[in-house]
Automatic annotation (TrEMBL):
GO terms for molecular function: heme binding; iron ion binding; monooxygenase activity; oxidoreductase activity, acting on paired donors, with incorporation or reduction of molecular oxygen. InterPro entries: Cyt_P450 (IPR001128), Cyt_P450_CS (IPR017972), Cyt_P450_E_grp-I (IPR002401), Cyt_P450_sf (IPR036396), Cytochrome_P450_fung (IPR050364). Gene3D superfamilies: Cytochrome P450. Pfam families: p450. The lineage of its organism: Eukaryota, Fungi, Fungi incertae sedis, Mucoromycota, Mucoromycotina. The keyword Metal-binding applies. This is CYP5206 protein. It comes from the Eukaryota. Its cofactor is heme. Belongs to the cytochrome P450 family. The chain crosses the membrane at residues 14-39.
């Protein structure tokens, strides 16, 4: 997932200080700033009487709120929602961001008014280089070609295509559990994140190309991880300072950033994915690329459209599920009470059925399912989802949402609203026991019944939700969790005096659109109760 955060500015050669300095020097003149601020105001007389959306007062000439978001933008946005209400706007240099924290208002904007609120913003790297010519799904504007890519993804990521992968996922989960136990025995404790990343990568690579790798030392795996992370950096503010501060567009050419981005995409995406496609099409396994290749004409997609779509799916489907479980284990390491409840469900099932569960047995695991949802609620892996763009002016309950403004669901504020979730800072899986349906079912139904909002909205609702929620990722997470919990107790590592080191779940690493816990270790201790 790309990095829309300000912290990404620190990752690149064009850093925040440079942006701020250049901006201030360039526009000490308030006139220019005013010109920018009126850039997105409407001239339509019908919209004249609409209310102005409030904005935080911490704003600077020219750069607006760009630096006021600080190091934890999600938390700062929650603070502003508490002060200003469920909708406010930010001036991000030349861009206007509309932040929404109320789920009903977000539903009205992204679903009811979805025909006007589902495009994607301009971005020098994502739109002009990565998705050049409107290829792919995640970063293209809502065009006919986007519709065709989306239909292909929805058809191929649907349950019937993904169901047969159950056995592959069980094997991945068994290998992961074995390596966590062995590494703990060998080293005293282990970081679960590498293993979880490898499982997610293998599952998504099997889905797309029918390929997997044995070890996280595999050079192909390492280069894909590099590709995903660098793509996230280029996809952020640093990859396109010109969209925020047009005056700096030239800098990207002068510094050679544009050329670097073009070369990066050619070498790390086009060449690599062309080879993967060839292997997938000629391999023996049924996979996404094979079906797409056969049905190319039906979907109206060319080679490059398919290639970018596959890249979108690998990028979006690897980090997300791995990080979700990495957060969940970090939380659960400190909560033996929750581990025992999940283990009671598993032991009960195994005693009755003489086998470990399949995903189709999910109904026997309400507490496990509720724990997964509570993990996503307490630690949403994206602070702002993937931004949408208003393709026209919108009247949203009397508020004027200007054309071309960037529309964002404030994940942290939405998931920590005490009116929606009592005692929001506590980890309480029981709150989801009355929402037994899968997240995919609830996200596609009435807003009144939606359990959480991590998969975005409306026409852009994460198509991997079928994988992420009922199929691949939720299935993947289900198999990982049932196998790990059946065979292991998870305990914090011990210090030199044998005292437990508490896993810190309040510290974040902000990768941009996604965030992870700081690297942590745990002990995976074999359970004597495990029957298999
Ligand atoms: C826990 C796991 C996941 C989370 C939290 C997540 C979250 C999201 C979010 C917030 C969006 C943006 C929605 C919007 O614009 O309103 C999105 C889009 C997307 N996701 Fe996921 N995702 C997850 C897993 C996956 C998986 C497993 C796949 C692929 C198999 C995937 C593929 C995509 C794609 C292709 C898009 C772009 C859709 C479009 O723009 O039309 N995601 N996801």
């Amino acid at each position: 997932m790309p990095d829309f955060s300000l912290s990404s500015l620190r990752n690149e050669n064009i850093n925040l200080a440079v942006v701020a300095a250049a901006a201030t020097a360039a526009v000490a003149a308030t006139l220019t700033a005013t010109a920018f601020y009126s850039f997105s105001e409407t001239k339509d007389p019908n919209l004249k009487n609409l209310k102005e959306i409030p904005e935080p007062k911490e704003k600077y000439p020219f750069i607006g709120h760009l630096i006021s978001l600080g190091n934890r933008p999600g938390k700062q946005v929650t603070k502003w929602h508490n002060e200003l209400g469920p909708i406010f706007k930010l001036r991000m240099g030349a861009q206007t961001w509309i932040m929404v924290s109320d789920p009903y208002l977000a539903h009205e904007l992204f679903f009811t008014r979805g025909s006007l609120a589902s495009s994607r913003p301009a971005h020098g790297y994502l739109r002009d280089i990565y998705s050049a010519g409107g290829c792919g799904l995640t970063f293209t504007v809502t065009s006919k070609k986007w519709h065709r890519s989306r239909s292909a993804a929805m058809a191929l990521l649907a349950p019937k295509s993904v169901d047969p992968l159950g056995q592959d996922m069980i094997e991945e989960a068994d290998k992961l559990t074995k390596s966590l136990l062995e590494d703990t025995a060998k080293h005293g404790s282990v970081s679960p994140s590498d293993g979880l990343y490898l499982v997610s990568y293998n599952v998504i690579m099997t889905v797309c190309f029918g390929l997997r790798t044995e070890s996280s030392d595999d050079p192909d795996f390492r280069s894909m991880v590099h590709y995903i992370h660098q793509h996230e950096i280029y996809g952020g503010v640093s990859g396109d300072v010109g969209s925020f501060l047009p005056i700096l567009s030239l800098a990207a050419y002068i510094s050679g950033t544009k050329k670097k981005q073009i070369d990066f995409v050619k070498k790390n995406r086009d060449e690599v994915f062309s080879k993967l496609m060839e292997k997938g099409i000629n391999g023996d396994k049924d996979c996404f690329v094979k079906s797409l290749h056969e049905d190319k004409a039906k979907y109206g997609l060319e080679h490059q459209d398919i290639l970018v779509l596959l890249s979108d799916i690998i990028v979006a489907g690897t980090d997300t599920t791995a990080l979700t479980t990495t957060w969940l284990l970090a939380i659960i390491a400190n909560r033996p009470d929750i581990q025992r409840k999940i283990q009671a469900e598993i032991d009960d099932f195994v005693a009755k059925n003489g086998r470990l569960p399949m995903y189709s047995d999910r109904e026997s695991f309400p507490y496990l399912a509720a724990t997964q949802k509570e993990g996503l609620r307490l630690r949403p892996i994206t602070e702002f989802g993937v931004p949408h763009e208003a393709s026209e002016d919108i009247d949203l309950r009397g508020y004027h949402v200007p054309k071309n403004s960037i529309l964002i669901g404030s994940m942290d504020a939405m998931h920590t609203n005490p009116l929606r979730y009592a005692r929001p800072e506590e980890f309480i899986p029981e709150r989801f026991l009355s929402y037994p349906e899968s997240m995919a079912t609830l996200a596609s139904g009435s807003i009144k019944k939606r359990d959480q909002y991590n998969f975005g909205w409306g026409r852009r609702l994460c198509p991997g939700i079928y994988m992420a929620s009922s199929y691949v990722a939720e299935t993947e997470m289900f198999y990982n969790m049932t196998r790990i919990f059946h065979r292991c107790n998870m305990e914090p590592p011990l210090d030199v005096d044998g005292k437990p080191i508490i896993v810190d779940i309040d510290a974040f690493i902000d990768h941009g659109i996604t965030s992870s816990p700081v690297p942590y270790k745990m002990r995976f201790v074999p359970r004597s109760e495990a029957l298999f």
